[in-house]
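In the laboratory, one determines a bound structure by crystallizing the protein with its ligand and collecting diffraction data. In a computational setting the workflow is compressed into a single prediction: the sequence and the ligand go in, and a structural description comes out. We illustrate the idea with flavin-adenine dinucleotide.
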Amino acid sequence: MTLSFKRIVVVGGGTAGWMAAAALATALKGSSVELVESDEIGIVGVGEATFPSIRNFHRLLGIDEAEFLRATKGSYKLGIEFRDWRAVGESYFHTFGDFGELSGPNAVWGQYHRLGEASLGALGEQCLSSVMASKGRFMVPRVEHRFDYAYHFDAVLYAAFLRKLAEQRGVRRTEGRIVDVARRADGAIDRLLLADGRVVAGDLYIDCSGFASLLLGRALEEPFVDFSHWLPVDRAWAVPSERIGTELTPCTRATALEAGWAWRIPLQDRIGNGHVFASRYLDEESARAQLLQQLDGPALAEPRLLRFQTGHRARAWVHNVVALGLSGGFLEPLESTSIFLIQRGLGKLIDLLLSGAPLSEPVVADYNGLNARQFARVRDFIILHYCLSARRDSALWRAMTTMELPDTLAFKIHAWRKAGALQQYDLEGFDATSWLAIHAGMGHWPEHTDPSLGDMTRAEALAGLQWRRERIIEAVAAMPTHGAFLRGMLGR
Ligand SMILES: Cc1cc2nc3c(=O)[nH]c(=O)nc-3n(C[C@H](O)[C@H](O)[C@H](O)COP(=O)(O)OP(=O)(O)OC[C@H]3O[C@@H](n4cnc5c(N)ncnc54)[C@H](O)[C@@H]3O)c2cc1C
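The predicted complex, in structure-token form:
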């Protein structure tokens, strides 16, 4: 297989398309990049919460944080508050933070669990960024801090922001609806035909056409690996609402509901809301009503319904087509991982193209293997949030807590339950600390604890945890609120 990438055509101008165009134009100086998008079709525009890796993407593109936050009406994200997931009325945080050591006698979680001391509060109180999130405080980490952060932003404004940057770096934008795709004798894509008769041709096509999956799905008919037996949600209502109250929360909120869950994403000028649900357990109108009940202020538009299927195309790269974003697959947005997966796919692709080495079949097969494993890793992490629940109050919760799990996840749960081991595979999107946050938040503790925890007396262990908790309280009390920090960053 000899694959040229002198002329790269990006199909689609959503988050995936403009991320790809901006990054390719920045990294590959010898290639031309053309992006085709249809204003008539528009973009999904609901991916508003992100993962910390987006900051690396911005660094590589030379994006200034304040400029980006101003342009996208963005805010900071320390993680997610999960409400009602284990039981109605209970909540916990999964932040991009730190729980100290994870094994041995100094393991914070291990001593906390061994002590079973109510005065210590929740394990989350041992994590700086979880306490920051619960108190509405934010600052970017200093050298002594061990936490990371991401952003919330308006996805439509983000695409526009990246478009400006990409066009400044030489990307050519072609507006028009693709109505036909011509293939070469070897099966590869030859050219795209637009509704007005224009033709767009390239050597390498990046399919960012969203759920339509115009090239990989429709033209090349790459099979879909269906995850809906594990992740049955298949609809989402999305609606913005007025921001009521003065302070911005520095975290996303995910509230478990009867047949899915609702997101709440705070932006500078509004709140983004949505209800992700399984249509096999709840009809669309009832789901819409449940979303409207969740809003803290009046809705700013009519709710919009999105339909999807969880899973991914078996291969992301076939012939001269590489799919990024929704055209390649979608897992439900519980942990805001779509943009993260776009970034990983794009980063790997650019590494391969930059190497200048011939793009042989094994290289492409390796790319596809990595992509499939990344989807599976994130899938397992998302299922973990459901399968540990104590809820049995609706058909969804009964199904999610009794279903057969993927083997990879079943092993991890077993390793934790039996021995307190936070097993990690390759290509994990979430590190051991994140897995710990979910296990602990869901009240899922190991049956046997590490005997080395006994190297410390109970009094020493308690004093250590109390000390850590108090230092966190002091540090957080001295931090600005999220709103104040953001205003300072924006120069307002
Ligand atoms: C309910 C929901 C919530 C989500 N929440 C998050 C989140 O919090 N965090 C996160 O990271 N991700 C989230 N996502 C995913 C996120 O929205 C997407 O990954 C991201 O927006 C990328 O979308 P995209 O660019 O692949 O597709 P789209 O935004 O759909 O863009 C597709 C592009 O293709 C073009 N196109 C399609 N057909 C044609 C044609 N025939 N001719 C020309 N152009 C065409 C369209 O015009 C458009 O420009 C969410 C997704 C959903 C459904």
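Residues 12-17, 36-38, 41-44, 46-50, 155, 177-178, 208-210, 212, 214, 236, 238, 274, 276, 306, 308, 325-327, 333, 336, 338-339 surround flavin-adenine dinucleotide (CB under 6 Å). Keep in mind that any predicted model is a hypothesis to be tested, not a measurement.
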